[in-house]
């Protein structure tokens, strides 16, 4: 049975079902994709055959809990990353096949486990993650940047991590919001901040909106996600836009990249070429990132 993706900006997405994973249905593609690469110093072009896990199909690991980057509902997949990667698949003559993953943590590792050719959904490139992925995974060029923020009940003032003393904050385990929050709590020497985890940003933010005095004070995420949550959940507003803090206490910019299965030969190079000159500009624009360290 075919289920359509709800694309952004009117773009059509060809998709299919993988019987071994929670993916969306569609046609089995058989086309081999060609990526054109320039030969050193000349205008000559050579065709490079892309290799994917399944010939003619681009399998993409996506996490549905990060709106607006990836969303799944009864109508299928939508969001900035599915739209962008579907345009890439179409350019390469591949059928786009989303592979749903239930948790965000370590989604960047899944191409190395042969679960998908590419992993997306707002993955920040960090030195620790690059080391973790090793030789089996390539990181693409950057396509977006983000800053940190909090979703709070309207009228709540939070200007620094010290304002979180004695409170509960909700976030997504393993996300850069989690890394930033734990690093800042440690750097400030706070011992009375409780961090709780959810696998859906909207669920976490609704907990904040509906909480009484003893409930969570904030949901931590990126600016793009927080803006969507504040627009869609009554009584919620964004506050404290800041850079990401790493575990060593340094602040850094947050560029997004895709991870690519190294055995999917030619794919990372083709995706980098698409990022440089996309047929569909990234729907989120360049992002809300800050130039860090300041």
From TrEMBL:
Gene3D superfamilies: Periplasmic binding protein-like II
Matches recorded under Pfam families: SBP_bac_3 (PF00497)
Annotated InterPro entries: Solute-binding_3/MltF_N
SMART domains in UniProt: PBPb (SM00062)
Domain Solute-binding protein family 3/N-terminal per the UniProt entry, residue ranges: 57-286
Keyword entries, A-Z: Signal
Stored SUPFAM superfamilies: Periplasmic binding protein-like II
PANTHER family, per database record: ARGININE-BINDING EXTRACELLULAR PROTEIN ARTP (PTHR35936:SF17), MEMBRANE-BOUND LYTIC MUREIN TRANSGLYCOSYLASE F (PTHR35936)
Protein name as catalogued: Unannotated protein
């Amino acid at each position: 049975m075919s289920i359509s993706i709800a694309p952004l900006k009117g773009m059509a997405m060809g998709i299919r079902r993988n019987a071994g994973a929670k993916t969306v249905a569609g046609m089995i593609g058989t086309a081999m994709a060609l990526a054109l690469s320039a030969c050193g110093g000349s205008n000559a072009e050579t065709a490079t055959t892309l290799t994917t896990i399944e010939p003619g199909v681009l399998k993409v690991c996506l996490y549905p809990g990060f709106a607006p980057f990836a969303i799944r509902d009864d109508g299928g997949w939508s969001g900035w990353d599915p739209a962008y990667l579907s345009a890439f698949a179409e350019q390469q003559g591949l059928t786009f096949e989303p592979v749903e993953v239930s948790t965000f943590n370590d989604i960047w590792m899944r191409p190395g486990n042969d679960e998908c050719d590419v992993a997306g959904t707002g993955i920040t490139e960090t030195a620790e993650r690059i080391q973790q992925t090793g030789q089996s995974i390539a990181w693409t060029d950057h396509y977006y940047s983000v800053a940190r923020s909090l979703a709070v009940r309207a009228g709540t003032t939070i200007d620094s991590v010290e304002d979180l003393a004695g409170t509960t904050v909700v976030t997504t385990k393993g996300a850069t919001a989690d890394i930033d929050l734990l690093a800042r709590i440690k750097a400030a020497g706070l011992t009375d901040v409780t961090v709780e985890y959810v696998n859906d940003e909207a669920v976490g933010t609704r907990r904040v909106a509906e909480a009484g005095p003893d409930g969570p004070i904030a949901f931590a995420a990126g600016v793009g996600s927080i803006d969507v949550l504040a627009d869609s959940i009554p009584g919620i507003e964004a506050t404290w836009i800041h850079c990401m803090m790493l575990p060593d206490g340094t602040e850094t910019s947050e560029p997004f990249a895709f991870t690519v299965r190294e055995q999917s030969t030619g794919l990372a190079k083709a995706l980098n070429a698409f990022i440089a000159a996309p047929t569909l500009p990234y729907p989120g624009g360049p992002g809300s990132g800050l130039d860090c360290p300041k």
